[in-house]
Structure formats: structure tokens, C-alpha cells
Amino acid sequence: MAFINILDGYAARLTKAATKLNLHLNFDQYTLLEMIHKKVHTHMTYEAMSPANAPTPLQTIATAVAIAGKMGVPAHIALANSGVTLEDLQTPEKMRMVTHAHELTVFSNIFTACGDTSIGLRIGQALDIYAYGILGAAMLTAPTLGEALQCLLDFPLLQVSYFKQSLRIDGTMAITTASGYHYRPDLTVINTDMCLASWYMQISGVLGKPLDVKRLSLVYKERPTHEPFYFKVFGCNADFNSLENAMYFPAELLAAPLPRSNPIQYHMMRGYCEHIHREWAAQQIHDVTTQILLLLRSSLHRYGSLNAAAQALYMSPKTLSRRLRDVNSSFQNLLDHARHDLALECLAHSTLSVGEIAQELGYAETTCFRRAFLRWTGQSPVYYRELLRKEKSHKS
User: Fold this and answer.
1) What is the distance between the alpha carbons of residues 345 and 218, in angstroms, rounded to a whole number?
2) Binning pLDDT at 50, 70 and 90, where does residue 32 land?
3) How many Å apart are CA 255 and CA 174, to the nearest integer?
4) Contact (Cβ atoms closer than 8 angstroms) between residue 293 and residue 334
5) Which residue of 41, 154, 180, 374 sits 20 to 30 Å from the alpha carbon of 277, by its own alpha carbon?
6) What span, in angstroms and rounded, lies between the C-alpha atoms of 262 and 78?
């Protein structure tokens, strides 16, 4: 009964949020349970390990279309050539899984139609804690903000993002970062803005008050035309041409008790997240290579071994190896792919030494990393970084 009461309250909040976005949806506890248990099948082809094929819920597209409507862009324009229909968005039981490729098409359509570079921030503002379904409900009832954010990071398949998201402590500051973007370059600003604005809204929702952001850093070299909008969203101006996309806030907030904290409900909701995570891994996402890359991009340290990845996907290492062989792949190939992407990112956007990058990638010896990087790119890490510096200096 307690769990049903939780779903009742949460369904009411979802319905209210949908109404604000002009989406005529009516959620109740039974709809939520049906959506959770329903086995939604997604049929994807894996094209050259493209991250654009990563699976994601339809929620972001629904939100983007609603925001576009307020900006004068009709739904049929926003959804053109995306493979998603307005009927899909207006019927809760059709809240199927799509891919990032579908989302990117919608974002591009909206931007082309309105030319407003602030759409990423606007969409991110609408993706608050209630847009995360049961995972959002678990975060709301967590004992502390730190545990809420850990819950978010513990279930990578439930919060598929365009970025590798991380949280670290540096002195008195907690720092959330968004890195590893490997999608359409023309949508980099839109997707980065959306990610950080959504993080801000989720943390503010969990705290029950606006997050006190002390600094916002962005890697964009050029200031976007919507620069003043950052202050309206985050309460602080943005620093551009930075080493990383990051949001800084007082670390002491991580240990502060949350206003809706309920340990019993949190334990129940977290268990339900685990159940959904297992269902998605076992039933909804058929492309095992995509699943592995999602895990590796969420945490190389945590999922960088065959045994760890197999455990996360609820199968034996032998079964995982066999399924990868069936699609002419292997865990080592996927691990190399993820390491390659992260290596390029670290060399381009961090001050880490080659030895530190090797350690970050899970290599026991720096020489092993150097040999791997030479095999991937035909260049040494030091030479590659120097080329990037010269290129950046030349553009300046």
C-alpha cells in the first residue's frame, strides 16, 4: 500500500508537469506500473559503434517538441524525418524507447526552424527531477544529495546521456562534469547546455530549492548569442574557453539531509530502479555492443573488465563473450574503443600527464597506453597533444 501511495503522488506530479508543457497526458499508478513492466522492444542496428545508436526514452523528444511549440515551431516541423509521430508523444502507453539519432534529428529541426541557440537551456530546464521517472522518485527520497546523485550514477542505462557525467570533490567545491561528447558537432552547444541545465534542475528539485551554483565553466571558445540566459538559469555567469564543462557548488550540500528523505521509500525505490535496470538490460536493449559502450562510457574503472560488465548486464562472462562473438565483436575491442575516445578527450581538454591519462584509462603501465595510442592514431600521445596546441594557437 505504501508503494502504491508513492506512485499515486508521483503520477499526479507527472500529470501536472505534462500539463505545464501542453502535453495532454494523464498518469495514474496503474499506467506507471504498466509502463514499468511493459516489455518495449527496440530494434536497432549497430553502425560502426556510433554512439548515436544509444537507446534513450522518448521523454526528451516530448519535452523538446513542447518547448518548440512555445517558440513557434509546430510539432510536425520538429518531428520531420525523425521516425517519431505526434501520436507517440500524446499516448503514455506508446512512450517507447528511441535512440539519440532520433533526438538529434528533432533538435536539428527545431534549431533550423527557430535559429535560437538557447533551446538547449530551455529543454534542460524542463527536464527536471520528475522527467526521470522512478529513478527521479528514488532520488527525491534519498537521505542526502550525495546519495541521490550516486543513485543517478549507479544506473547508467536509466539516465542515458550524451555525455559521460561525473561528480568529484575539490576542496570545498563539489563539481559535476559533462565530457566525452561524440555526436553532431553542430549541436554541441545545444546538447551541452541541455545536460548542465537538466543537472541543475534535478539537483534543485531534490534539494527543494535552487542550487547555489558558484561557477559554471564551458569549453566553448566563442560566446554564444544567448550568453545572458546562463545567469537566468544558473544564477551565475558562464566562463568560456574552459578545460571542461562543469558546474561548481558547495560540497557541504552533499551531506545535507533532503526535505523529502524517507529511508524506507528510498530503499524500495532504489530496488525498483535495479529491477527496471535489469529489465532494460535483458529485454529492451537488444544490441549488446551498445550496452557495453554505455557502461564503459559511464565508468571505465567500474565496468572495465569482462566480469564487471557481465555482472552489470545480469549474464555470465561466458554468455557475454558469446553474444559479442555473434556480432563479430569482443569485449576487448569495445574497451579499446572507449579508451580511445577518452584518451582523445583527455589529451584535448585536460592538463593530465600522459602517465595520469594511462592510469585513468586503466593501463598498468604508461608504455602500454603509448603503444595502444600509436596503434589507434599512428601518433604518440605527446605528439598528438602538441598538434592540438599548435592548431589552437594558430586559430587564436
Assistant:
1) 15
2) very low
3) 11
4) yes
5) 180
6) 40
Q: What is the pLDDT of residues 118-152, one digit of tens each?
A: 999 999 999 888 887 888 889 999 999 999 999 88
Cα gap 154→143, rounded to integer Å = 16
pLDDT digits (tens, 9 = 90+) for 239-271: 999 999 999 999 999 998 999 999 999 999 998
Sheet holding 245-250, edge to edge: 164-170, 173-179, 245-250, 215-217, 238-239
C-alpha cell read off for 240: 568560456
369's CB contacts (< 8 A; 6+ apart) are: 343, 354, 357, 358, 361, 363, 381
DSSP 300-362: HHHH-SHHHHHHHTTS-HHHHHHHHHHTT--HHHHHHHHHHHHHHHHHHH----HHHHHHHTT
List helix spans (H) across the chain.
Answer: 2-20, 29-37, 59-70, 75-78, 86-90, 100-114, 119-126, 133-140, 145-154, 188-207, 228-234, 263-279, 288-298, 300-303, 306-312, 317-326, 331-349, 354-360, 366-377, 381-395
- Give CA separation, 55 vs 33, 229, 265, 319, 386, in Å: 21, 30, 28, 22, 36
pLDDT tens digits, residue range 232-243?
999 999 999 999
pLDDT tens for each residue of 290-310: 778 777 877 788 888 999 888
pLDDT at residue 315 greater than cutoff 80: yes
Q: What is the pLDDT of residues 55-73, one digit of tens each?
A: 677 888 999 999 999 999 9
- Whole-number Å distance between alpha carbons of 347 and 111: 31
Cα 376 from Cα 340, distance rounded (Å) = 7
The angle subtended at Cα 323 by Cα 322 and Cα 324, nearest 5°, is: 90
Q: Assign 287 a pLDDT band (cuts: 50, 70, 90).
A: low
- Cα-atom radius of gyration of the chain, to the nearest Å? 21
Question: Reduced to 3 states, what is the DSSP secondary structure of residue 129?
Answer: helix
- Residue 301's CB: how many other CB atoms inside 10 A? 11
Contact 134, 269 (CB under 8 A): yes
Q: State how far the Cα of 156 lies from the Cα of 277, in Å rounded to an integer.
A: 8
